[in-house]
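Lab notes, practical 5.
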Amino acid sequence: MARGLLLLSLVVLALALVAERRAAFRNRFNASREVKPLDLLGCRLIKGIETGSEDLEILPHGLAFLSCGLKYPGIKSFAPHKPGEILLMDLNEEKPEPVVLPIHGDGLDRASLNPHGISTFTDEDNTVYLFVVNHPQFTTTVELFKFQEEERSLLYLKTIQHELLPKYLYVAELLGHKIHVFEKLADGSLKARKALAFDTLVDNLSVDPTTGDVWVGCHPNGMKIFFYDPENPPPSEVLRIQNILSSNPTVTQVYAEEGSVLQGSTVASVYQGRLLIGTVFHRALYCEL
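Output from the prediction step:
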């Protein structure tokens, strides 16, 4: 009898632990959150982007680079066999549309291009370089390109590969629902200044160089990203944070949508009243604010 009670107690304890772990998992992914739509006037889906626009970067003079076609284990892909691409949009045009940037140079396997994050650097000669996180065969590298503006193409320079590359220092803590703010000290070290908590999964961050506002692509319900259901798609959300270094930052929900228009937003960036919103695997939105 005592043995039976002990066994029953162990079973109950195990089930309680499983339930606790399951609840914690669901909380980290905001599995129960639903989105109340908040539409932006002047928005349109960007023609030609059908397989995601996970990250994007806008140069000060209005040229936008977008990394498209990310494929990653556990993430939905609408074109699993199509190589990824880097697109360019000129936001100075009246009706900007994306174009695929041709890639020149030897040493890059274009068929395995699987771009993720993207960043730019402009040197003193105004030459623009792109650093693109790439996942060929689901490994992690960083590809370095030189942007040839007259030709509207990319020149592949080299692949940066290191055993520590898969370990990132995130300012946006996706599953922690936080954005951390660090101060860079003179010796190159980082000092934590603050952490802002949100009721959403914060993804890529973009800083408006004019105002200092931080724009955030968010996943209101991260569970729907990893367990994709076309009948109940992942929603999208964009936040703007003003005066992030102050004691009382202003956080505004700029866009929210349950997934009927845009699924799985990851990034948002602005240029002179024009907003681009990218996604993990879906489409991209262009808005005039």
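Observations recorded by the TA: The mean pLDDT is 89. Residues 1-30 form one domain.
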